[in-house]
Amino acid sequence: MSTHAKRERLLLADLLETAGPDAPTLCEGWTTRDLAAHVVVRERRPDAAGGILIKQLAPRLDRVMAEYTEKPYEELIQLIRTGPPRFSPFSLKPVDEASNIVEFYVHTEDVRRAQPDWSPRELDPVFQDALWSRLERTARLMGRGVPTGLVLRRPDGQTAVAHRGTPVVTVTGEPSELVLFSYGRQSAAKVDLDGDENAIAKLHETKQLGI
């Protein structure tokens, strides 16, 4: 596993363990147990994980998720720590980095920022650049359902166009915060929005950008 993805994986496992199975998360309707089951199913049950993106497969995903949420919580955490089985594509380092760096970062913050006493953590510039690189490649996908023009901007001025249109809303923040914003965690992301007030209001009403 790559350095970034592995670090976030282990941090997520530690946070889930500390929080316990019934703690809230930023994922609406999910406790930490539900989130842990999701992570395990995504990596270990490709026959069901397709339901995350394909509606026709959602019933199967729901059944498998229900099975995994019944497993001992400690077992779920251990499965997250040990990583995917050898036959999984996620066990390949390039796939792990491409698929999991954002996945584990977002879910780590789902646990952290659902707690009342959370505070932003310092992320090294290399990790921020890695998150930005992923966001640049997926911005158009994430912004496809946005009702306004949308530009994501780093403090240094680098931008990624998530959706072309008018009026335009510019969202400024560190790559880590822009990732959270783009993955539907608008209320928890530390970003600044600039643009038409009505457009900003519509953007806030968009429950989840892209996927």
Shape: globular
Question: Approximately how much helix is present in the residues?
Answer: 40-55%
Estimated radius of gyration: 17 Å
Question: How big a fraction of the residues is strand?
Answer: 5-15%
Number of strands: 4
- What is the strand arrangement across the widest sheet? 2-1-3-4
**What is the count of DSSP helices, taking H or I runs of 4+ residues?**
9
Return the string of H and E elements. Answer: HHHHHHHEEEHEH
Please describe the biggest sheet, giving its number of strands, its sense, and whether it closes into a barrel.
Answer: 4 strands, mixed
Which whole number gives the mean pLDDT?
89
How many domains make up the coordinates?
2
Distance between the termini: 25 Å
Structural class based on helices, strands and sheet pairing: alpha+beta
In the predicted model, the low-confidence regions spanning at least 5 consecutive residues are: none
What can you tell me about this protein's structure?
This protein has 211 residues and is of the alpha+beta class. The protein is 53% helix and 9% strand. It has nine helices and four strands. It has helices at 3-19, 32-44, 46-49, 58-69, 73-82, 93-112, 125-142, 175-182, 197-205; strands at residues 149-153, 159-163, 168-172, 192-194. The chain has a four-stranded mixed β-sheet with strand order 2-1-3-4. Helix 2 packs across helix 5 (73-82). It is globular and about 50 Å long. It starts with a helix and ends in a 6-residue tail after the last helix. 37% of the residues are buried. InterPro entries: CHP03085, DinB/YfiT-like, Maleyloyr_isom, MDMPI_metal-binding. It holds the Pfam family MDMPI_N. Residues 12-45 form the Mycothiol-dependent maleylpyruvate isomerase metal-binding domain. This is TIGR03085 family metal-binding protein.
